[in-house]
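Provenance and format

Records in this collection were gathered into a single text stream. Each protein contributes a sequence line and a token line. The two records reproduced below are adjacent in the stream.
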Amino acid sequence: MLRPSPPPSRFPLHPLLLALGLGAAGLAQAADPLPPAATGAAEPLRLRPSRLLTPPGTPGQESKPALVLSAKKLDSQLDQRTQAEGEAELRYGDLLLRAETLSYDHASDLAQAGGGVEVSRGGNVVRGPSLQLYLERFEGEFVTPSYFFSQTGGGGQAQSLRFLDAKRIRAEAATYSSCPAVEPGETPAWQLTAQTLKMDFEANEGLATGAVLRFHGVPILAAPALSFPLSSERKSGWLPPNVGLDNRSGFELGLPYYWNIAPQRDATLTPFLMSRRGVGLDSEFRYLESEHQGQLNLAWLPWDRVADRKRWALNLANSGELGRDWKYRLNAERVSDDDYWKDLPKRISSPTQRLLGTDLQLNRTRSFAWGEATAYARVQQWQVLQGTDPLTRFASPYQRSPQIGLRMASAADEGVLAGFIPWGRRARLEGSLELEYNRFDLPTDLLAAQRADGSIRGGSRVHALGHVSLPMGGSAWWLIPKVSVNAASYSFDRIEQGLPSGMVNRHASRTIPSFSIDHGWIFERETRLFGRNLLQTLEPRLLYVNTAYRDQSALPNFDAAAKDFNFDSIYTENQFSGVDRVSDAHQLTVGATTRWLESERGEELLRLGLVQRFLFSDQRITPDGQVLTQKVSDLLLLGSAHLSRRWWLDGNLQFNPDAGRSVRSTLRARYSPGPFRTLSAAYRLARGQSEQLELGWQWPLFGAAAAREQLRSVNANSSGSGCSGGGAWYSAGRLQYSLRDRRFTDSVVGMEYDAGCWILRVGAERLSTGRAETNTRLLLQLELVGLSRIGSNALGVLRDNIPGYRQLSEPRSSNRSYD
């Protein structure tokens, strides 16, 4: 069975199956025990009603359940026939049958019921005027029944329903809807009808003929025959259509077909039509073998009428084992042209839409008494989508072709590896060593500026990274002295000035030692704050680093980048990631954090922290290339508060003591007084670079009282339809505004109407694709609660963009969104 991601929901009548197949796949629940005999006055024994029953016995052990009959009047002939009248009730295992009159023939095992017949099994309920049912083999017929399923909160009616056996059902003129009951002669807001419905639970297959889906009486989907799965298992068939509209491609309609190839393989083929660009095909193939798993996506547009060329996108993600403990991973993404990310962005999965990678990795890890060793190899290539606007172009990173290495590390506790978590054991030496060879080069379509005089086209590097440490500590403190070394040897190519096509070979090497001491404590005390019993912690930390200076100006920089200056990176020994740049340092980082925790639940209510770095000598290897003479670094402050269950506050500040002002700051607040009510705001400042405001929300506009009543009804009454008669309007969105550019950037605004059994989502999403370019997309989605969603993926957009967003149908729908 495929498991990397849940399979898409098939269209599907499978909620209808749940209703009509009430007993065939019912849930097992323990029967209520008989009450003990009362002392004193005799009181008749009574069975307490229960919707979910399971015969007693060992789970998995087959046994014939007991049959219990009760009524106001019982007439029985031993082992022949029993007649019950007046509130008759029959229990047989997990089956509960109620009726005004009920007769049971012992010899034929036939139960006949009439007058307000109700059958409950597995939480599902079927009602009708009359029923004939062979109990043990579960064969019989229900005349003009109505039904309800607890799992989906919906139900319907049928002209007749036949239980062929415990695994098969046939219904004639069947309907299904999760909308509440309406007046006779009226139809629900949405309804699915089928002339004939056949269901085979053992084969996990259902077949509906003459299926039509109507919304407010208007047919919106029809098919002469539909096959569908009867559970969460996968089944081949057509899925609900995809609908989209944006300013670049126009109206888009996609009709996905799901192909269940095998238990470990499946595919989804989606022919689509774009009103401006033409006809194309999206495809997805997934597989999950015993040693290999992966996914392949291919989007194909044979001819784009706007771009006047063919367009395509390929995405491959694959991993597995090759034997002898060797594992591999391949991730590759490629598109047809530089403008693909702007014209067809939803078909690109990379988080960096303009930088698409191809990455093949191979590794093998072996464990030894002293620790473990990992051998690895890697090839990494890039496709850089530059476009024609020179202002938006960027330098391409170097490619690795190849990377080969070996890492060895001594056995260590997780707390030791984390570097600042107290533990309790005797001190011992820890160490690691990394040996690696890399060949670097630039993509063939590299930016012209990277071909400029003096730039490096590529080269080779051999490096060794190693450290030895002696961690020691107790239950409330740690001390980790460490000696490390970063050594590298280069052989690189340089384009000489005035000779754009001439290259000469260059060699260089350097070795940089470093020493550090990481020391910290965790103190605790009980206290009270705002009338609450709390546990307060005080967590001071010191990091001393002494790294030798080596001139690196004549060395290439293939993979090093400056780290962001924040509360985590300030406690690192090197200001650069990668290998090629190592910052010289003679410094001490001093910081402390204090937290207030609820004594009972351990929930963090308040956190405050500050940290600063002190330099004992000037730093010459810096991210901006300028010598750093400032003896005291910027002060970092952070805070977060959750003193009320409705309010969340957090922020951080980078303050420059020399300039007397903040360099960067982030402030965030969120107010959430109840379900489907959230309001968040954020302010972000990077002085001289950006200043941005953000507002996100989900809030009821009209019909809020009805929405609250609906939620209470759903939570309190599991046997109800899960819908209320009144509807509610909600607004949801996120706005980002650049104070520096005085314009809105990436934003989404939407409206949702919750009618109880169906939800309509309408919205617009705006994404910046350049300084003066945007991609605006219209979102339209109709969710039929308990059945399916039709239209664009508005729910996914709202959920991904709005902090604290909650799906309106969450308490009612058994379906979960994976799109």
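Adjacent record:
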Amino acid sequence: MRKLVKKSMFTALTMLIISGVFASTTMAESSINADNEPYSELASLYYIAADGEMDVGTPETVIKDTYWVDLEKNIVLSKVVGAVDLSYRPGDDKGFKIIYKDLEEIGVFPKYVLTPGETALKSHGKYYNRNVRSYKYIPNTGITNYSESIMSKQYDDFYRLSYLLGDDAKIENSSYLKMGMKSTDPVPDRENPYGFRESDVLSQDEVNDTSKLTVFGDIKEKGSTDSKQIKIHKVGDELKLDFSIYAPWFKRYMMGDTLRMTRGDLSDEEIKDLYENNEGMVDSQIVYTLDIPNEVDLRSPTASLTGINDFDFKTEIKEESGKKKLVMSLRLKEDKRGKKDLWKNIVEKIRKVDTSNVKVSISGLYVNSNAKPETNISLRGTVGGYFEWLRTKYDGVERKNLEMYGILPEDGDYTNRTYLSFAAKQNNEGRDQAVPSDKPNLISYTFKLEDKKTNPPVNPKKPSDPKTPDSPNKPETGRIDGKDRIETAINISKKNYDKAKTVIVVRHDLFPDSMTASVLAKLKDAPILLNPTDKLDSRVADEIKRLGAEEVIIVGGQNSVSEKVREELKVYDSDKNVERIAGTDRYGTSEMVAKRVVGITGKKNTGVVASGQVFPDALSVGTFASREGYPILLVKKDSVPSQIQNAIKDLDINKTYIAGGTNTISKSTEAKLPGVLERMAGNTRYETSVAIAKSKFGASKEAFIASGEEFADALVISPVSGKYNRPTLLVSTKAANNGPVRSYVKDSNISKLTAIGGQRYVPSSIIDSLIN
């Protein structure tokens, strides 16, 4: 049965419903007083139920009813520190009595999202007020058992740049009325030292109708403009998805809270004090999840982030009740979270943040044979998170009073802390056609399997054509090249990357340092660009600009890509600190790249081993390693270098794949490697590339062709081939060497071959010989 709530209470509580999704604030009044009485027990939680109406229920009810996000019940321990003004108690001497109390706050939070007791600000922000008997640990947005929140505190006077909201009757007894102020009068410049504009804070409409304070989420196919459409796929197709959220009001809420600080009956000196000396800290996290149905395989899935900077990004696969879930977590970088800075500096940084399109691009999901034709297959997504900030209230009068009675916090600050949580829901414009009518807030992506009965092949064999019954159609062919290897790499980037947050730069004319870069590039969803040692090629610079890259990574030491080039690249790096991954030699670089790769994937235990003395095997296997996210470890024919031994130990490598025969990695070296699962090898480099294709890409009907005599083209295509699950086959300029590749193309019914590089190393005559 619905509870009736007075309009004023409903308005305040509705403001608690961040993103129009949920608030779990109990109506129990948790307080402490001069007698140190225990706080009240948990009563009930206010929240928006599945039908969109305000309801009251237990944590279990909220979790069950809020189907569009996964919630968990949690208990947050907090210490309440307060001071009771004894002048309010007849017969007591004037002064303060300090109260300390440990409380348990009970609430529901988005799953995988840190609670207030776990964030970087968990030990800060005790709430002090010398004239109030009740002291709250966090003025929050309704996720604990406190009925008050910062949204209900001074609700009428801090959201906009006008003095008060609503009719002037609300200020009947206020000092504003006595000064002749009206609710619509603008805030004087002296009370707005931050120079906020109307567009910087919440609008009147948003304050009047808090349903507008909603975080929306949407999943659609990468590059698509229609997220409603049910796509048609076939077995083996990769699902490349963009998962975005829209939350432009988040920072405007914080700006409004900041404006409140300097408004009111304050002197110019006090306002200046607050503006110039106020300090603060911030922390934030966003967690995307994607439920993986049985009809979809995960093959080293990766996700890249765009739209927001200064966040670390981690992707994990969770298994719950036999079902897999892809969990993608963004967390404010460690060197920025919980670090004290002047609040005016923090405000200026946040003003520049655009929260209207924070997007995660996901790859590595493939349709498998469990999919049935004409059956809707849906991937459910959720997004939850928090933005948390803490300000020191540097108020001269208040500080002196607190100092007088010795009740300042441990760090000497009088602080307010806000934990603003959210959970996204689907907007009307992008709602999936397959979403059940009773679950309109569900965020999902739906596809169907191609039905061959109703969707016949585009080029069916015709019995009347004497050429087709006995011989298959020839593979389609294509080519990506340039006038030199640098331009070829750029053209590969242009064809496969509309935008890229990261680019990998390696030396254009020597292979040792760059051989292991392919896996890192795939994980970062970054193109590999080739560059000379001592000068930034202007074409490379132009391509980085086109991509809109914010991070540049060099793989290789100064002899590969000089410090001069690194300095030139800094202009394209958002933090002006171009990362260089390098060791003292190719094996040290392999070690460093491997550790960087595992740092991104979290996948220890498995590595791919290839020769560091010749390049072809490492490049052939780069496609497989990239697809799976396994680091490539380079070894010598007859020994395992000490750097690689260190990597094996540090990364807990206990399973390895070997690329290449005993002529490149001997039996004695194999014996020194942990848990060899498979050696993919042939008598030649061309046979080895075929062996890898047969073992790891048996279902693929498309392949790339690159030179087995020149390293660069095979290197730059490796992350792309891993991304699209296509093998890279190496060929020789001598047709006689390519028999194994020709047989593989025929026997595997390859439908498309794409040559990488120019005619010099992959002549058209060689491509023709592979398909005829």
